[in-house]
Amino acid sequence: MTGYVARRLLAAIPVLLLVSLLAFLLMQIVPGDPAHSMAGADASVEEIEQLRHELGLDQPPLVRLFDWYVALLQGDLGRSYTLRADVASLIHERIPITLSLAVYSMLIAVPISIVMGAVAARYRGSFLDLGIMGTALLGVSVPNFWIGIMGILYFSVHLGWFPSGGYVSPGESVTGWIRSMTMPALVLGTMQMGLLTRITRSEMLEMMHKDFVRTARAKGGSELRVMLRHAMRNALVPIVTVIGLLFGMIVTGAVVVEQVFSIPGLGRLIVQAILTRDYPLIQGSLLFVAAAFVFINLLVDISYAYLDPRIRQT
Fold first, then answer.
1. Degrees, nearest 5: CA angle 274-280-285
2. What value does the mean pLDDT take over residues 1-10?
3. Are 227 and 208 in contact (CB under 8 A)?
4. How much is the mean pLDDT over the chain?
5. How far apart are the C-alpha atoms of 257 and 144, rounded to whole Å?
6. Please, what is the Cα angle at 196 between 195 and 198, to 5 degrees?
7. Directed axis angle between helix 87-122 and helix 174-207, to 10°?
8. pLDDT tens for residues 29-55?
9. Of the candidates 271, 269, 262, 270, which has an alpha carbon nearest to the alpha carbon of residue 167?
């Protein structure tokens, strides 16, 4: 098992190096000049050039790329141009908010999706199945920002159940945190619920036609017991795969939802960095998100090994 995890960690190193390179190159082709944005419209050419020199933007790209890798090897993600703080500390401040939103969203989406997918598979071809699949299709198709805006208009403005935006930390008020995060979590998990419901239904239908499931039925097992103990258990490997990928999608999808609901998480920080051409903050945030994806995939791989011991030999 240790060797299995070590191989996965070694495979992640070139991925992160490639992402860091792409993040740097992306900043070189993005239009706009951070120094010009920071100096303001009334700044002279000399002032802009002086600021470019202070920020190191007057150095050749290869020199800046080398400095970027040297800093990364030392665990330094750089210093934000606009916020005048270490990128690592800024990410550290915002990531708990985004992770709490992502986890809350998954806690809502995963149980509902698995139950709905299993029910749809059990009653395949019925009106219940068609209704669940139609709802799942809408969840996949409708953009998150539109659902968020409609949710604010109805649940916040019309009914007054939830605040229209803002964030309350659990340290201030647990009830306030739940109220401020429930609607964003539901909106963020809508697409994930649609995808996971459809995949759960597909996997359950496949498993329910396997010989071992027919054997369990022939032995007199109830339909519920057969579904939960035999069909669902063997369908978990692909479902866990999708859950891991969806969690990564939720972390990145939080960029839009945090903007709609004014939540000061990592997604909103990335948007602000892009608008201000804050290169170190953009590069550090992208690298962190990529590392989160790699870590989530590693957890999924480890869960494979526990769900199916044969995978440990690969």
1. 70
2. 68
3. yes
4. 77
5. 7
6. 70
7. 50
8. 777 667 766 666 666 777 777 777 777
9. 262
- Domain-wise residue ranges, the chain: 2-73, 87-313
Whole-angstrom Cα distance, residue 188 to residue 263?
Answer: 13
Would the pLDDT of 312 be above 60?
A: no
Q: How many CB atoms lie within 10 A of CB 137?
A: 13
Both tokens of 74, joined, read 């030392």
87-313 has CATH 1.10.3720.10 classification: yes
